[in-house]
Amino acid sequence: MATAQPARRDADAATVALRSLSLTAFRSWRRVTLELGPEPVVLTGANGAGKTNLLEAVSCLAPGRGLRGARLQDLARRGSDAPWAVSAEVATPDGPVRVGTGADPGGEGERRVARIGGETVRGPAALAEVFSMVWLTPGMDGLFRDAAPARRKVFDRLVCAHDPLHARRVGAYERAMRERARLLKEGRREPAWLSALEETMAETGVAVAAARRDLADRLAPILADGLDPFPGAALALDGRVETWIATMPAVDAEQRFRERLEASRPRDAETGGAGDGPHRMDLAVVHLPSGMTADLCSTGQQKTLVIALLLAAARLEARRRPPVLLLDDVVAHLDRRHRAALFAALLDLGLQAWMTGADDGPFDGLDGRARFFRVADGEARRRDRPAGPA
Ligand SMILES: Nc1ncnc2c1ncn2[C@@H]1O[C@H](COP(=O)(O)OP(=O)(O)OP(=O)(O)O)[C@@H](O)[C@H]1O
Ligand SMILES: [Mg+2]
Q1: Residues near 149 by Cβ (< 8 Å), separated by ≥ 6?
Q2: 129 CA to middle of ligand 2, Å?
Q3: At what angle do helices 191-225 and 240-247 cross, to 10 degrees?
Q4: Which ligand neighbours the alpha carbon of 328 most closely?
Q5: What is the CA(47)–ligand 2 centre distance, in A?
Q6: Fold of 141-316
Q7: Which residues 6+ apart lie within 8 Å of 268 measured at CB?
Q8: Which of 140, 198, 216, 359 gets the most CB atoms within 10 Å of its CB?
Q9: 358 in ligand 1 pocket by Cβ < 6 Å?
């Protein structure tokens, strides 16, 4: 059984890991630097110590709003005038890269700057091209009962890990969609402008759908197998363009989508947005051992399904571009067997997973194999936890 095997590092696996992390004026953290190795990182400490804030800081090194979906102004340390900043040295298959992000000192509102190798880049989307990250938080516990956007977001993050240009394409699609919605709402009859925006939506939207389809197809066999005791699962993309792309060439799907957008202008003008498209896709997941759709599974089963999905994606990328995993409070909800299997899989795949927990006990299986920090009083102190008896 997979869980009983001694953990070993896959010799062919690529290495992607944060080798150091520094925060300044980020939420509860005044200033902290963590020196890291390639191994998993475990942060333990009392409730409110700042563990999730640290993970959130790491998640800001990916495009988007981080693992809490926070507004940028909430990331700044209360009562401090210093601009918040996060930087890290990341080991990648192409060598070490320094990345950073933080408040834009000259900017207003919802903007942050990103730096790669000391150079300021145009937007945080470029960070996804250096390395990828996926996360699991307690907020995702109801993922299969939430509305579609939550599932779409999780799946798109996995697609970003597989295809670094996905974030840019989603951004371009959404910008064109918003611009079209604005024109329609204002009742402006500018067919050439509308057509140009719909052209962009069709091109980028079909590319987005194709990247999702590609990942879903590659994941299917890995996901079906499961990783004992994590269950096997089946995954279906529920979206019109995602369905077209499976049955016709991309150029035909683009044309169909363009025609559909043009035909739906009067309705979209009334309802706002766009009635159909990749921005509506949903994800249907089935727990194979029981044949139940994920929304009908128990809370614990749903958690193991999400972990199975993340692990399947990580296994797919292990030799190419393994993601850094952020697993906030994950062990609290897993029984001993699932914990052992999760740790074994992380070590086997050579992933740098960041895990948090209030107590040390659940991490016993990682003694000597992970880097432990105790978080308290605004500091993160490294603690050695030698390997126990085999
Ligand atoms: N912008 C901010 N400035 C200062 N402090 C903040 C800011 N945002 C949140 N905090 C505080 O940071 C503290 C630590 O929060 P965090 O979520 O990281 O704790 P935690 O260690 O993960 O706790 P738990 O074990 O309960 O999950 C909280 O007390 C919170 O109120
Ligand atoms: Mg927390």
Answers
A1: none
A2: 28
A3: 80
A4: 2
A5: 7
A6: Glutathione S-transferase Yfyf (Class Pi); Chain A, domain 2 (1.20.1050)
A7: 180, 181, 184, 261, 274, 275
A8: 198
A9: yes
Distance, CA 52 to ligand 2 centroid (Å)? 4
Token digits of residue 55: 């993970």
State how far the Cα of 204 lies from the Cα of 169, in Å rounded to an integer.
6
Helices (H) and strands (E) in the chain, counts: 10, 15
The yes-or-no verdict on residue 3 having pLDDT over 60 is: no
* Ligand 1 neighbour 357 (Cβ under 6 A): no
Residues 208/170, Cβ–Cβ less than 8 Å: yes
11's CB contacts (< 8 A; 6+ apart) are none
Give dist(CA 148, CA 153) in Å, integer: 9
Report the separation in Å between the CA atom of 54 and the middle of ligand 1, taken as the mean of its atom positions. 9
- Tell me how far apart the alpha carbons of residues 263 and 195 are, in angstroms, rounded to a whole number: 11
Ligand 1 atom closest to the CA of 75, numbered from 1: 1
Average pLDDT over the chain, rounded to an integer? 92
CA distances from 117 to 78, 154, 254 (A): 29, 28, 37
Q: How far is the CA of 379 from the centre of ligand 2 (A)?
A: 15
Please give the number of the atom of ligand 1 that sits closest to the Cα of 56. 18
Question: Does the Cβ of 296 fall within 6 Å of ligand 1?
Answer: no
pLDDT tens digits along 101-141: 999 877 665 689 999 999 999 888 889 999 999 999 998 88
Distance of CA 31 to CAs 26, 34, 115, 286, Å?
A: 8, 10, 19, 44
Ion ligand 2: residues, CB < 5 A: 52
| Domains in the chain: boundaries | 1-132+321-390, 141-316
State in words which class domain 1-132+321-390 has: alpha beta
* Residue 107 confidence (pLDDT): 66
**Of the candidate ranges 5-14, 148-157, 200-209, the one whose mean pLDDT is the lowest:** 5-14
Atom of ligand 1 at shortest range from CA of 50? 18
Amino acid 388: pLDDT: 62
